[in-house]
Each structure stands twice: as C-alpha cells, then as structure tokens.
Amino acid sequence: MIAASLALLVTTLLGLPIVRWSDPGAPISRTIGAAFLIGTGIVTLILLSLSLAGVAWSLTIFFAIAIVVEVAIFFITKSTPRPRPIFRATLLLFIPTIIILIAYARFATAVAPWELDFVDNWGLKGRVFALHGGIDFSFLRIGWYWWTHPDYPPLLPLMFDFVSLFSGGWEARWLGVFNVAFAVAAMLIVSSLIIEELESVAAGALAAFALVFLIATPWIGIADGPLVAFLLPGALMIRRRNITHGALLLGCGALCKNEGLAFIAAVAIGMLFDRELRPKILRLWPALAITAPWLIVRATEKLATDLAQGSVLTRVSEHFQHVETYALLLKYVGGRPMMWIGIALTVVVAARQWMRERFLLVAVLVQTCFYLVAYVVTPLDLAFHIRWSWDRLVWHVTPLVAFVAIVTALPLAMRVATAAPSGRGGAEAPLAPP
Amino acid sequence: MQWRVWGARAAFLLVIAGAFQPFYLRMLTPAHDAFARQVANLPFRKTPGLHEFMEGVRAHTAPGERIAIAVPFTRWDGGYAYAYTRSTYVLAGRWTVPLVDANDRPLPRNLETADSIAAWRVDATVRGFVPVWRGKDGVLLRRQR
User: Fold this and answer.
1) Contact B15/A402, CB-based, under 8 Å?
2) Does the residue A257 lie in any domain?
3) What is the DSSP string of A110-135?
4) Is A110 close to B39, i.e. CB distance below 8 A?
C-alpha cells in the first residue's frame, strides 16, 4: 500500500507543472485531478523511453530523467497563476459522493485485481515487464501470446510497474487503487467544470452524485476505468474551449487503450460540427504527439493488431451471413434502463439545449460507430466478442451522454433555486459552454 | 412552462436512480469480507488447484525457463486457453509453451523447445523428461541432460 501511495503521489507531482500551465487558474481540486491524469502519461513516456534506450528501470534513473523533464516543463510553462483554493463548505455538499468513492475504494482494493483481463493482459504485461526491468518486446512479439493483445497501449501496465519500482518487486495486492485514483481524478475535474458552468455548488454536487457511478467502473485492474477518466474530462475541456488541456488528456487516453486513439478522431470530427471549435481542430496536435511514440514502437516492432489481421473482407462477409448475431448488441448493452429513460426525458424537456451540444454528441456517435465497425471486422467469434466487450465499450461513452443530460436538465430542475436575472442558470438560458 | 421544470426534475431523478449502484455501499458493511473471499481466487475458479500447482512450479523453475503447459484439455476454448493464460500469469518471467493452438491443433513439436513440462492432472510420462517436483495435482518434469 505504501508503494502504491508513493507512486500515486509522485505521479501527481509530475503532472502539476503542466496542468498549472495548460489549465491556468483552475481550482486546486481540478488541478490535482488533472495533474494525476497527465502525470500517468509522463510516467509512461519516461518508462517507455528507458525501455527503447535499453536502460533497465530503476528509481534512481527514473527520477534523474523526471527531474530533467520537470525542469524543462517548468521553464517552458513558468509564470502561471496559482490554483484557486476551494471552500470547505463545498466539501460538505459532496459528502454523499465521497462516501460512494470510499465504498468504491473498499471494493476495488478488496483483494488483488480479479478480472480475467488483468490476469491475461494488463496485469500479465505489468508483471512480465516488472520482472524484465523494462518493456519485454520479445514477449510482445512472440506468437504464443497473441491473446495478450501486444498492440494495446502500455499506460496501465507501466503504472503497475511504477508501483513495483517503489516496492522492489511485483506485488498485485493494492493495484486496484489505480481504479480509485483515476475515478477520483475524473470526479475532481468534472465536478469543478459543472460548478463553474452552472454557477452552483449544489448543482455540481448533485451532478457529481449522478456521475460517480458511471466514472467508478466495476472492472478492476483493467483499462476501461482509466480510459473513462481520460475521455470524459478531455472532451469536456475541449467543449470548454481549452483545447490544449483537453488534447493532453486525450493523448494520455490514447496511451491507455486503442479506443482512446479512436476517440481523438471522434473528437476531431465532433469539432467539425461546432462553428467555434472547427477552426481550432489542429490544436489537437498534443494528443497525437503524446501517443506518437507508442504508435511508432507498435509499427517498428510489428506488434499485431487482431482487427487488421488476415482478410478483413472475408470476415465481414462471414459475419453478415449471421447478421442476427448483432441482436446481441441490444442484449448486452449494459442495462440501466431507468437512467436511459431519464436521459431521453431530458431530450424532451430540453431539446434546444441538447442541440447546442453537437460537439459532444457527434463525438459520442462517431466513437460508437467505430465500436460497431470493430464488430463487423472482428476476427473473434462475433457472439463471444459482443458478449464480453460491448457493455464495457458502451460504458466508455455513457458518462458523456449522462453529462449532457445533466447539464441540460439541472438548470431547469433547479429553476426556483438558481434562476437569476441574467438567466444564466434559468430554464430558458442558453447553455452554450463558457 | 411548468411541465418542463417538473419533467427535468423527474428526468434527473431517473438518471440518478438508474445510475445508482447499491452494491458499492455494501462494501461499507461486513459483506465486504465475504466479497473479498469470493473474488480472491476468481480467475482460477474453474480449475481448482491449478493456481497452487503453478505457484509450486514457479518456485522450482528459474527465470527464462521454457515450460510446456500440459493440462487435461485438448481444445483451446474448451479449457486449454483458460489454464494456459492463467498459468502464464503465475509463471511470468518464464516462457510458457503452448501444446494446443487456437484452432485446437495439438502442438507436440513445441515440446522440443521446452526445458520443462508443468503437467497438471495429466499422465506425466514423457520420454526425455524426468520428474523433479511433485505437487498435489501435478508434476514438474525437466529435460534430461
């Protein structure tokens, strides 16, 4: 536990200078949340660089490089304003959400991560790399282990390895704490954004309570939870017109899962549908710059991507011969019918506000289309693939849809409490992002 | 437009109620310990004894050793993948050699590349290999030099 705590602390400290520059003047809570998320990207890129240089991992070498990196970032980003403090009274309203997060922490750290995908993918790679003292490319290349998905981005296994650097060896017992840290980080960012947008701490607290169950994912030790923690705040920062900060988060998300890479494209397409964001689309470049090193490694090491292997057209043809299998998409969509009814109801009562959320909605739609295409070209048994992944994929974008529902419905729902002469939080107020 | 206000309130309540996951709250009760016991060995649930046996194999083999995984399943999706992937996690740092491929074809030639065989609940007589350690459910064989 001490090793995991130290890893979380150092990761957050590493991300602080960049976040103070990329999201200047943010409240301290949002700064800390984003610092952890971007810190994981820094840790990943440092450990990846060491492996590519053939240097065995050690804390001494890591810190030597980290100090150089941080000093460089400090000089590039100096003279940024201090984060704003948060009021203690704010915390009281968040107590229900904090209780859920404490319960989630008990859940996630009950034992070592127990998901199959931890044992045969994320945790296995972490353990192999930790014992190797660096990324073991021969392990990724050997055909025997195709089922570990060698092409998957390395952020999560490398974060596990970062803990092992502090503990002196592989110890999986407390690795579930990463799920908690990612969820808390995302909650800190999203709550702050909602409070600022709706100009109401109470609205922020209510929204946080609704979103915490979607951000605290139940799959412990695998990358879906961390991915949600990158995608949601990343897209929301771009919606807020802080494109550089959003792109940094999305880039780290692409280091976390291939779906994160797809989401960069989905966000870019979403930006095309927003008049203000459209001219700024090239400012997404930091997202690609962050993920480029891994993409280059993946190409040069010829790490197999199962979706692109063999004859794609043959597989498409085979799947379409059993088109009824796609009905499983409805069966395994992940439940929560009451929440979806509520979301649909917000469309009815706040249709105009939903129309203003074109950027997010198009991004979600495009991402969902990417997922559906994956099921068209999958080399796996279609029913098996849908059964064991669709609910997780839907979960990636669900918080974004829920966010739109919440920010469109809450001002209306709290009309008596928040209606102001300016109309900013009122029922008829436009909800264009700040 | 009063109906929209009440509609928004109803919608928000539905979103919260629909998203609410009461299971997490049980983690603040004594049910947490029962849950922890339930999931502690979940990845190995269908192969009782395999985890302990492979831990024994790990203790009796060296990093870098090539260990063929012999289990009583002959089909990839019929149990071999289950045992092989989990054994690979326990034996991380060693090379686990598969004896069945994803198309259920046996891979006997892979034995030629193996230094050892971790034989779990199967007949452990293989020419050229001798037993070096016996666990409760299996035996570790090493190539005779």
Assistant:
1) yes
2) yes
3) SSS---HHIIIIIHHHHHHHHHHTS-
4) yes
Which chain B residues are Cβ-neighbours of A415 within 8 angstroms? 5, 8
Residue numbers of A between 297 and 316 with CB closer than 8 Å to B: none
Q: Is residue A91 part of a domain?
A: yes
pLDDT digits (tens, 9 = 90+) for A363-408: 999 999 999 999 998 888 888 889 888 999 999 999 999 999 999 9
Number of cross-chain residue pairs from A and B with Cβ atoms under 8 Å apart:
155
The token pair at A257 is 């899962």
In chain A, pLDDT over 70 holds for what percent of residues? 93
**Buried-state track A251-287, b at ≥16 Cβ within 10 A, e below 16:** bbbbbbbbbbbbbbbbbbbbbebbeebeeebeebebb
ipTM of the complex: 0.93
Residue A255 forms contact with B (CB below 8 Å): no
Considering the entire predicted model, what is its pTM? 0.93
- A79 band by pLDDT with thresholds 50, 70 and 90: low
Mean pLDDT of chain B: 94
- Using 50, 70 and 90 to split pLDDT, how confident is the model at A86? low
Interface check for B22 against chain A (CB to CB < 8 A): the answer is no
Please report residues of B whose CB lies closer than 8 A to that of A140: none
What CA–CA distance (Å, rounded) separates A307 from A154? 18
- Contact between chains at A342 and B32 (C-beta distance less than 8 A): no
Q: Would the CB atoms of B40 and A114 count as touching at under 8 Å?
A: yes
| B19 contacts A102? CB cut-off 8 A | no
How far apart, in whole angstroms, are the C-alpha atoms of residue A70 and residue A383? 48
Minimal CA–CA distance to A103: which of B23, B57, B19?
B23
- Tell if the CB–CB gap between B24 and A100 is shorter than 8 Å: yes
pLDDT digits 0-9 by tens, A27-57: 999 999 999 999 999 999 999 999 999 999 9
Q: Residues 261 to 290 of A: which have CB under 8 A from any B CB?
A: none
Measured between CB atoms, does B109 come within 8 Å of chain A?
Answer: no
- d(CA A354, CA A402) in angstroms, rounded, equals 12
pLDDT band at B56 (very low <50, low <70, confident <90, very high): very high
Q: Find the closest chain B residue to A109 by CA distance.
A: B36
**Which residues constitute the domain of residue A258?**
2-309
Mean pLDDT of A59-64: 96
Provide the number of structural domains found in chain A. Answer: 1
Asked if residue A64 is part of any domain, the answer here is yes
CB contact (8 A) between residue B8 and residue A120: no
- A306 falls in which pLDDT band (50, 70, 90)? confident
pLDDT digits (tens, 9 = 90+) for A340-349: 999 999 999 9
How far CA A155 is from CA of A105, A184, A284, A303, in Å, comes to 21, 18, 20, 16
Spatial distance between the Cα atoms of A413 and A345, rounded to a whole number of angstroms: 12
DSSP conformational letter for B116: E
Contact A402 B17 (CB under 8 A): no
